[in-house]
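Write out this protein's structure.
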Amino acid sequence: MEYIVISVVALVVAALTLFSGFGLGTLLMPVLAIFFPVEIAVAATAIVHLANNIFKGLLVGRHADIKVLIRFAIPAVIAAFPGALLLTALSGMGTWGEWNGGSKIYEILPVNIIIAVLMIIFALIELLPHFENMTINKKWLPLGGALSGFFGGISGHQGALRAAFLSKSGLTREAFIGTSVMTAIMVDVSRLLIYGLTFISHKTDLFAEPKIRGILICGILAAFAGSFIGTRLVKKITMRHIQIIVGVMLLMLALALGSGVI
């Protein structure tokens, strides 16, 4: 059952994230955590996420807008460091509340509320007709990258803000997808080098079981298949469709994050 559930989730979400620019790690980790300890779920998600982004980069990376990529991705990578430091301070603030979801208690954290509010604002900008033709001047791209990286350092949800900025930057659908994917690879590599590599190097025993390795391989292959399917649909998707996908996923993620579900 674990193989089927995780493979289906990885395939479907990977296809959607090709257009939205975010969501695979955010949605896959809670599913993995249902079947395995959290530390295994976190490490496995990081591996699947990076592997899938590299695969997507091979598929669509050539369409990336190099100028936008440099102006957006470099500030994102740099800003992730102070974001991670701020996480330490925020972690001592405690929760703003909690609620009972049956067999699990969900905590409402201050940092998640802040990020959720930002996501809702960006989601409304994507979805409301009044903002349909709105574009963000490219001079603001470094600021967008910095915000994306900063909040990514805090919670790992940098992809949502990245997609919100890039989708309004006047890029074509191919350039948006390619630039988003290449930015994600840069941020993923930096995060794994700083945090993930140390964690995984001390937890190699977690992946000693054949079942864990099998799940990991299934997740990666299913994500590859989802991304490949997504590339076949690119020409049928307009930039407005992408904006709607981004807006809906932003709202869903904001509600889940603000309520403590993820």
